[in-house]
Design brief:
By secondary structure, the protein is of the alpha/beta class. The protein folds into two domains: about 20-280, no CATH class; about 300-530, no CATH class. Helices cover about 35% and strands about 15% of the residues. It has 17 helices and 17 strands. It has a seven-stranded mixed sheet. Strands 3-2-1-4-6-5 form a six-stranded mixed sheet. Helix 2 (about 70-80) runs parallel beside helix 7 (about 175-190), helix 4 crosses helix 7 and helix 11 packs across helix 16. The relative contact order is 0.10. Residues about 10-20 and about 280-295 have low confidence and may be disordered.
């Protein structure tokens, strides 16, 4: 074949491959949270590439400023994306905050609301405003929306080396760039509306032909590409563009829009955001080892109790102490001892009350002796496997027990003599403090009950949350209810039991005391008796 003809065929192949790409342009931004929105920042770098052109650096429009400003970059992005050319933009800063932040400040799980709420307290897009001005209280109200460096998003725990969006003043920190960049994401979103897809908040799979803006972490790919004479900031932006265009040309980029996450992890990531290109190592392990793990499940035996293991519970005193705060010499004295008493009773108190509830309904119940884990050395662990037989079906509940009381964080006193209307309101309020509008537990320690645990494949499994607190979504004195889960959750329903409500019902029925299997509590009391006589 003639040399010119072979060259022409190669050009045709390149053009065909380019036409198959999901995107026509790729933009990589290494962000900077330094100084103000109008400052010329050497650390703010932008690279661009097209389907058939290599990455080049984009300089800011001609002006007295040598480098990009955050305000100038946001306006440039809006103008570029309004042209309608399918473009993917990777930006190196956090797009949202950890779930603990949402729980701490009772922020609805909607990204638009989060951005607006953040900007109202952290107005880092204002003229002459440093991030540190808000941190120190000079501008805005940063103290009202303050994070904790120990809080991490799920995606940060899966991306090697990634730091918390609240971890300021350390090498490799993204805290300043995140706090400086979030108001500009809101600006871009409001300007472009449905012309751009913010991944994954607008959905995991972008529509064909739509431009996408995603969070990236260039440290994942920087070593794949030769550095040449680029600065660190230039090379990070270059690496973002090079990786995006390479993966798109190879037809693998779209796969990264659907990371391998459990339904519950996916739901969490829709709130916290996700770093494009980060996969779930734990889920990969589950896929590779699922058959092996199923074979390794050891048979568990039921815990048997003797009559000597069953002390008598004084039901009225339990309510007065843990709910009413009227035991003894009043609330101050109660509060001083509540945590210690709760520690002695442990999980057995709520578990014993739940056992009594099942026995009253003639549901055979077994508490299995053994761990409740995912099958790996790391990851969530629950408290008990509880087997209940209902209508001749054995259901294995993977149970998490929370013996939180009126003294616990976000707890409230609920007096025993509350009127019917008042009590209904108190029960509904307690429910909303613990469970969100989708039926998902607000507290991280309780939310893990939705993670599927390793079990015998023949089992029928369901999640069960056992609270001490009196709570009910409708304000009813029904201690055991089931809540429908979102369609993408692994489990269809979550069972929730309130020990306090059952105790109150027993009192209303005229029962003052019950026998309860609590061997560990008796052992602790025996040790205390030996230690202090």
């Amino acid at each position: 074949m003639h040399l010119l003809e072979r060259f022409a065929n190669k050009i045709k192949i390149i053009l065909i491959l380019a036409s198959m790409n999901t995107f026509k342009r790729y933009i990589g931004i290494d962000y900077s949270g330094a100084e103000t929105s109008e400052s010329s920042l050497s650390g703010l770098r932008v690279y661009i590439a097209s389907a058939n052109e290599l990455p080049i650096e984009v300089k800011p429009p001609p002006s007295t400023r040598k480098y990009w400003t955050r305000r100038g970059l946001a306006n440039w992005l809006v103008n570029e994306l309004q042209k309608g050319v399918p473009t993917i933009v990777g930006i190196d800063h956090g797009f949202s905050f950890p779930l603990e932040y949402f729980d701490e400040y009772r922020i609805p799980h909607r990204w638009q609301f989060f951005l607006e709420d953040f900007k109202s307290n952290w107005p880092t897009d204002r003229e002459n405003t440093y991030v540190d001005f808000v941190r120190k209280g000079v501008v805005g109200n940063g103290s009202a929306r303050k994070g904790n460096a120990r809080w991490k998003r799920l995606t940060e725990t899966r991306a090697k080396g990634a730091k918390s969006v609240f971890h300021f003043d350390v090498p490799g920190s993204v805290a300043k760039s995140t706090h400086a960049g979030l108001p500009w994401l809101l600006f871009i979103k409001n300007e472009l509306k449905d012309k751009v897809h913010f991944w994954p908040f607008d959905g995991w799979k972008p529509r064909n032909g739509t431009s996408v803006i995603a969070e990236v972490y260039p440290a994942l790919w920087a070593e794949q590409f030769q550095r040449d004479r680029r600065t660190n900031d230039q090379h990070d932006a270059y690496s973002i563009v090079s990786w995006l265009s390479k993966e798109d040309k190879e037809g693998t980029l779209s796969g990264y829009f659907l990371p391998r996450l459990t339904p519950h992890e996916q739901k969490r990531a829709e709130i916290e955001g996700w770093i494009l290109g980060v996969e779930s190592d734990r889920i990969s392990n589950l896929v590779r080892q699922s058959a092996k793990q199923q074979r390794l499940v050891e048979p568990l035996t039921a815990i048997r109790h003797s009559p000597s293991d069953q002390p008598v519970l004084n039901l009225r005193m339990l309510i007065k102490f843990f709910d009413d705060q009227s035991y003894g010499e009043g609330p101050i004295r109660n509060a001083r001892h509540a945590a210690s008493i709760n520690a002695v009773l442990g999980e057995e108190l709520a578990l014993a009350v739940f056992s009594n509830y099942c026995e009253q309904r003639h549901w055979p119940i077994e508490i299995l002796d053994g761990p409740v884990t995912t099958g790996f050395s790391t990851g969530p662990r629950l408290d008990r496997w509880i087997v209940i037989t209902q209508c001749d079906q054995r259901i294995h509940f993977q149970a998490e027990i929370k013996n939180w009381t009126s003294y616990s964080l976000r707890g409230r006193p609920i007096p025993m003599n509350s009127g019917e209307v008042e009590l209904r309101g108190q029960l509904k309020d307690a429910w909303s403090r613990r469970i969100d509008e989708l039926g998902i537990p607000r507290d991280k320690e309780a939310r893990k009950v939705l993670e599927p645990m390793r079990h015998d494949p023949a089992w029928v499994t369901k999640p069960l949350l056992i609270y001490w607190e009196p709570l009910n979504p409708k304000g009813a004195l029904d201690p055991f209810i089931e809540v429908a889960m979102p369609v993408d959750c692994h489990f269809k329903r979550l069972s929730v039991f309130s020990a306090s409500i059952h105790v109150r019902n027993l009192l209303s029925a005229g029962l003052e005391k019950i026998n309860a299997p609590m061997p560990e509590t008796l052992a602790r009391m025996s040790i205390l008796k030996d230690l202090v006589s």
